[in-house]
């Protein structure tokens, strides 16, 4: 249901700075049919709401910021509305043991409601689902930074279903029927064939998990007679992507400045955000500044002092802004930062595509005419629709429409050809 690097996360605010979201294992099994963007949206909504899941009836987040974090165009509210509607229409189902060891089965919509008003997305979970999602005893940690690297819903779904078993090293055996349900392809006659399931779902999803995430997985199969009947995944940590697991929350909470902020009524997550963004010394200076002034709202005054860098040697020219003004300013700043990150990411993606297309041109040039013809025929046969085939026929290996497929094809032909070195 409901994961770039630490640099991106440092620019997010509030709960969204947290790198991981606790996700109830029952919830991980309920959203196989969600698209990739819907799955990412569901994760970010849960991350945003997690601290107050059981104390607040509803939750809210700036809509443009939400869209950009998930990967939508910040002005594409139609897509955001459609995805929220899909979450409200998707049924969550869990089947698990309760605290007394009794079997418990239940269903609930993923979202009980969602609305967009005044640039804010407001949403809620049903009370029973909120309790399941918040249960600290039975959860998996899903890294929200990692999820943004996935480009397929099946890859992200497989990652979520495997990650919670990383400490045991194996998922245990799943029947193919269960696996199809987890991947959201149950009921498809095409994927009743193991050949198709393996070629189109298992192999691509396994490759993406190993390349994109902090774990590596290997599928194993079990037969009943001559047919494959069950599947499991052997799981190990991926040391090359261990950086994604860094979480400095405990270190920040050990700070004396953190304790002083809590004493001023600052929330846990906001205190950690301020310390992470500005450092202990800066925050301590602002605490001293506020302590030497008399203000009706010390928290609002402290927020303004941190944001505008009030100095002990000067008094602010204007009274501290209202809480509403502070919230509006924070939302604008958050949206601007997210938009800048999205623009940087788009520029980086363009540069990377240009680099890879140049490498493809070199690889093609090194082939003899017979090999080139065979390469084109093989690649064209792998394209699934007429539009893609026509664009490749017109533009050959420079087809922008087929860029991702072209890069995957040549990576398979010449492993490591796109490595930065």
UniProtKB/TrEMBL annotation:
This is Plasmid replication initiation protein. Gene3D superfamilies: Winged helix-like DNA-binding domain superfamily/Winged helix DNA-binding domain. Residues 20-162 form the Initiator Rep protein WH1 domain. InterPro entries: Initiator_Rep_WH1 (IPR000525), WH-like_DNA-bd_sf (IPR036388), WH_DNA-bd_sf (IPR036390). The lineage of its organism: Bacteria, Pseudomonadati, Pseudomonadota, Alphaproteobacteria, Rhodobacterales. Belongs to the initiator RepB protein family. It comes from Amylibacter marinus.
């Amino acid at each position: 249901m409901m994961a770039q690097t630490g640099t991106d996360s440092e620019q997010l605010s509030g709960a969204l700075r947290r790198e991981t979201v606790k996700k109830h294992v029952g919830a991980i099994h309920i959203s196989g049919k969600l698209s990739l963007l819907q799955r990412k949206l569901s994760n970010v909504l849960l991350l945003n709401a997690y601290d107050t899941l059981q104390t607040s009836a509803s939750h809210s987040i700036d809509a443009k910021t939400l869209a950009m974090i998930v990967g939508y165009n910040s002005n594409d509210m139609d897509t955001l509305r459609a995805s929220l509607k899909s979450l409200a229409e998707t049924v969550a189902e869990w089947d698990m043991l309760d605290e007394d060891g009794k079997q418990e089965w239940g269903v609930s919509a993923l979202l009980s409601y969602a609305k967009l008003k005044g640039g804010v997305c407001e949403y809620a979970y049903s009370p029973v689902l909120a309790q399941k999602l918040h249960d600290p005893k039975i959860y998996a940690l899903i890294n929200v930074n990692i999820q943004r690297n996935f480009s397929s819903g099946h890859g992200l779904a497989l990652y979520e279903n495997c990650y919670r078993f990383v400490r045991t090293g194996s998922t245990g055996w799943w029947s193919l029927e269960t696996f199809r349900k987890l991947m959201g392809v149950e009921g498809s006659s095409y994927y009743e064939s193991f050949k198709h399931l393996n070629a189109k779902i298992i192999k691509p999803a396994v490759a993406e998990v190993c390349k994109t995430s902090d774990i590596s997985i290997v599928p194993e199969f079990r037969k009943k007679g001559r047919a494959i009947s069950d599947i499991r995944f052997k799981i190990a940590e991926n040391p090359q992507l261990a950086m994604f697991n860094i979480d400095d929350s405990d270190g920040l909470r050990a700070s004396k400045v953190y304790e002083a902020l809590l004493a001023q009524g600052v929330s846990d997550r906001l205190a950690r955000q301020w310390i992470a963004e500005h450092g202990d010394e800066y925050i301590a200076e602002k605490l001293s500044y506020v302590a030497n002034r008399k203000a009706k709202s010390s928290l609002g005054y402290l927020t303004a002092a941190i944001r505008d860098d009030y100095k002990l040697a000067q008094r602010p020219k204007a009274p501290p802004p209202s809480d509403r003004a502070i919230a509006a300013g924070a939302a604008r700043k958050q949206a601007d930062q997210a938009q800048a990150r999205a623009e940087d990411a788009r520029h980086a993606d363009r540069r990377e595509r240009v680099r890879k297309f140049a490498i493809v041109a070199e690889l093609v040039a090194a082939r003899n005419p017979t090999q080139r013809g065979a390469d084109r025929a093989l690649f064209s046969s792998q394209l699934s629709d007429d539009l893609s085939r026509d664009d490749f026929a017109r533009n050959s290996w420079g087809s922008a429409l087929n860029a991702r497929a072209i890069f995957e094809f040549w990576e398979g032909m010449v492993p490591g050809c796109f490595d930065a070195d």
